[in-house]
Amino acid sequence: MKIHEYQGRDLLASYNVPVPPGRVIESIDDAATTYKQVASEAGTSLAVVKAQVHAGGRGKAGFVKLVRSPQEAEDAARFMLSNKMVSVQTGPEGLEVTKLLIAAGVDIEHEYYLAITTDRATRRHTLIASAEGGVEIEKVAHENPDAIIKAPLHPLLGLQPYQAREVAFRLGFRGKQVSQAVKIMLNLSRLFLEKDCTIAEINPLIVTPATGADPDGQVLAIDAKFNFDDNATFRHKDIQALFDPTEENPAELKAQKFGLSYIALDGNIGCLVNGAGLAMATMDTIKLHGGEPANFLDVGGSATEEAVTEAFKIILADNAVKGIMVNIFGGIMQCDIIAQGIINAAQGYENADGSKGFKVPLVVRLEGTNVEAGRELLKNAASDLPTLQAATDLGDAAEKVVAAVG
Ligand code: GDP
Ligand code: MN
Questions:
Q1: Ramachandran quadrant class, 24 (left: phi over 0; alpha: psi -120 to 50; beta: rest)
Q2: Active-site hit among 5, 72, 74, 201
Q3: Alpha helices in 217-334 (DSSP H)
Q4: I need a labelling partner for 369 at 20 to 30 A (CA). Which of 134, 170, 235, 296 fits?
Q5: How far apart are CA 127 and CA 290, in angstroms?
Q6: Atom of ligand 1 nearest to the CA of 20
Q7: Residue to substitute in 108, 137, 199 for testing ligand 1 pocket (most ligand atoms within 8 angstroms of CB)
Q8: Torsion of the alpha carbons at 349, 355, 357 and 359, rounded to the nearest 10
């Protein structure tokens, strides 16, 4: 589960990681007054207007803007709330922006990268840091991997103070910056473990220029990205409360409600399968025969007829779908339940022109528990399923559906 930057900033602040103050708006009309509030609270005319969406690359896309007056804040808000954001992380269709953060702006002496995530190679939570932080971090990791520092977390105790000090020195922090950076790293490690994060990222972590009061500057977090383990959110009501359904794919949310695992993809062959492994094998086999899956859909081990009906609705709501392949290996799942689900879905499905039934080719491969009863049901419902082709095995099914859409 992902959260917004403004929520991440609050979370960081609750773990004593210093973050400039800010407020969230949803309307252009609130931009000027909110700018004035933030500016007067922080005692600076510099503020930053930032699109709140579950995707990064905002800076480069023009959705992070520094502003110095109520008018500039309003102009930035107007731009961000009336244009879709297209960044390297959104795909060409872009994302609609409905919330903006207006935060106190800071002067930056240097930008660092700081994150904790799981390193699959070592199977450890790992602190990742770089003195070359900011909007080009992916490029740094790719072109100059030596500039990336890694420190594994102790599985139970988290990051140790000696590790944080070593990383701080290697990043080039000096004087009072060192203890500030160490504190931030240790707090981030505590946050990561206590809240069951899968990623906790501050990019950039910055140091402000020296002033009379702060001759070494201040170390601050000015961006926050968090991702949480979905299997652990049940024990974090506070994190659950941060869930924003408007940022999720509506079809995927609907599928979740019916206990279906659905992920939309770019192809034109809808897949309805029981079991995640079988669903992946099905997608591979479709590709092997030259086709492209339109989705991953696992109806699970014990789907009801209603869930199967819903699964068809979700698949067919995608206009790109030109054919459907059903691949069921009945273990706990009974083939006759699936067959009845297919029939119900076809009888109840209404096309845009008002006619009933599936128009797209449907290839069904059933095997396992109650398969004879399932096949019998489908045979008897032939008039409701004019586009149905039965397949003998997975390869046969893939071949038939690819031919049907081709
Ligand atoms: P992202 O591009 O989505 O990761 O958005 P960020 O919040 O990281 O902002 C992108 C960049 O904008 C940062 O790397 C900074 O260079 C710049 N930026 C953001 N906030 C401020 C600020 O308060 N002051 C200054 N001077 N630059 C900022
Ligand atoms: Mn960033």
A1: beta
A2: 201
A3: 237-240, 250-257, 276-288, 305-316
A4: 296
A5: 42
A6: 23
A7: 108
A8: -110
Active site residue 252: no
pLDDT tens for residues 265-275?
999 999 999 99
> What are 18-32's pLDDT values in tens digits?
999 999 999 999 999
Q: What is the pLDDT of residues 240-278, one digit of tens each?
A: 999 999 888 888 888 988 889 999 999 999 999 999 999
Q: Which residues line ligand 1 (CB under 6 A)?
A: 48, 50, 56-59, 64, 66, 105-108, 111, 134-135, 203-204, 222-223
Q: Which of 6, 35, 112, 113 is catalytic?
A: 113
Q: Whose CA is nearest to atom 26 of ligand 1?
A: 107
| Predicted confidence (pLDDT) at residue 50 exceeds the cutoff of 90 | yes
What separation in Å is there between the alpha carbon of 193 and the centre of ligand 1?
27
Tens digit of each residue's pLDDT (9 = 90 or more) over 132-143: 998 788 899 899
Helix (H) or strand (E) holding 177: helix 176-194
Largest Cα separation within the chain, whole Å, is 86
The b/e string for 268-295 (b: 16+ C-beta within 10 A; e otherwise) is bbbbbbbbeebbeebbebbeebebebbb
The model carries a pTM of: 0.84
Nearest alpha carbon to residue 55 among 93, 102, 112: 93
CA-to-CA separations, 177 to 171, 206, 214, 344, in angstroms, rounded: 11, 10, 10, 66
Whether the CB-CB separation of 105 and 47 falls below 8 Å is answered with yes
Instruction: Find the mean pLDDT for residues 371-399.
Output: 95
- Told to judge if 15 belongs to the known catalytic residues of this protein, a careful annotator would answer no
